[in-house]
Amino acid sequence: MNDVSITVVIIEDDRQIRRFLRVTLEGEGMIVHEADTARQGLIDVGNRKPDLVIVDLGLPDLDGVELIRKLRGWATLPILVISARTQEAEKVAALDAGADDYLTKPFGIPECLARIRALLRRHAGNAAGPAQRFGFGEVSVDLAARQVTKGGQPVHLTPIEYRLLATLIRHADKVLTQRDLLREVWGPSHTESSQYLRVYMGHLRQKLEDNPADPRHILTETGVGYRLLSGRG
Predict the structure, then answer these.
(1) Contact 61, 35 (CB under 8 A)
(2) How many angstroms separate the Cα of 96 from the Cα of each of 40, 64, 79, 119?
(3) Where would I find the Response regulatory domain in this sequence (predicted)?
(4) Where are the domains of the chain?
(5) For the chain, which end, N or C, has fewer CB atoms within 10 Å of the first or last residue's CB respectively?
(6) pLDDT single digits (tens) 56-74
(7) Given the DSSP bridges, would you call strands 147-150 and 153-154 parallel, antiparallel or unpaired?
């Protein structure tokens, strides 16, 4: 990354984890600010205007999920949760509150940096306006023309399949909960119809992945939802 313009606020009450993250991110050329409480974190985000916020859920003065809701009341910047909580319901709650991604402790540096790069890339793309073309693997999507090709050959998608793909593209590299996808594609009355989602996600993989049984781009986040990885290769 090596971009000194990238500023990160870490809201984490564990001093050792804050230090680990600071050393890691400063090694990538980032500017890092630390907060050990939700209250201080809110102040720092407001004052520092960061490009990314890293939030722990187990804060001493306010639950991290509530902190995310407060941030989402006025901030559109990417939020990465790093937490020791491993229950699927807790991950879903954080994502539903407005977090963009969730990393479970303990975690490795390469994965942490990869998640951060993906969030910054997606946010930069949104700030520049919606792209008219999107690609992954051998797939190319012309959003303006609503055309999908793979290896240069047209791919026929049903209207629902296309809406599902377009939704994944709008949120590329972000974990989308099953509820989010169902609400956006099928409407608010279908938020519990997870079987619909599994079936149509299978259809997309059959048509777009080289190996649908081992997808490289349309990924399942077990118990939470799905993620579309952007980029070629």
Answers:
(1) no
(2) 23, 12, 12, 17
(3) 7-120
(4) 7-127, 133-228
(5) C
(6) 999 999 999 999 999 988 8
(7) antiparallel
Distance, CA of 191 to CA of 179 (rounded, Å): 5
The H-or-E segment that residue 91 falls in is helix 88-97
Token pair in block for residue 114: 């990869």
Angle formed at CA 152 by CA 149 and CA 156, multiple of 5 degrees: 30
pLDDT band, very low/low/confident/very high, at 118 (cuts 50, 70, 90): confident
Q: Which CATH superfamily is domain 7-127 in?
A: Response regulator (3.40.50.2300)
CA pair distance 122, 160, nearest whole angstrom? 24
Confidence (pLDDT) at 58? 92
Mean per-residue pLDDT for 16-45? Answer: 94
* CB contact at 8 A, 23 and 69: no
136 — phi, psi (to 5°)? -155, 140
**C-beta separation of 151 from 138 below 8 A:** yes
